[in-house]
Amino acid sequence: MRPFEENFAKMLARQSMKYEELEKLVLDWGKNKGILDSSTPLRQLEKTQEELDETKAAVIKFMQSVDQTLLNGEDEETAIKNALEEVIDGIGDMYVTIILFTALASQLTKTYLNKEIDSVECLQAAYDEIKGRTGKMVNGLFVKDQ
Length: 146
Known about the structure:
Blueprint: H1 3-12, H2 19-32, H3 35-38, H4 41-72, H5 77-113, H6 119-130, E1 135-138, E2 141-144
Antiparallel strand pairs: 1-2
């Protein structure tokens, strides 16, 4: 079985793959669709914003489904499950757009700085920055100390 077929079979069987395996599949998909050859980091950020807005709408719908069920005491499990699937899809779509954005940005950094970047490196850099951060919760948001 070829690697693509093996990974597709895993996906169909819902076997968990490591992040790096999924990232490679997303990059291969982006290459095959022409995104990595003809898009730009800015256009990909616009796509990320679009997916973020859709995910926000899905979260609102999910919360409303939960509230409706609690208020009415009705069994609206199907509505909640469907709304949750939309949230999961939205989060996944944001990951895809961020992985593709990172690849497009890496093309620029390689051209101008002779340095490639990847999404795991970016996540590591962000974690290194926040791991010792202090702050407090204000209206449901973490606000870092100055």
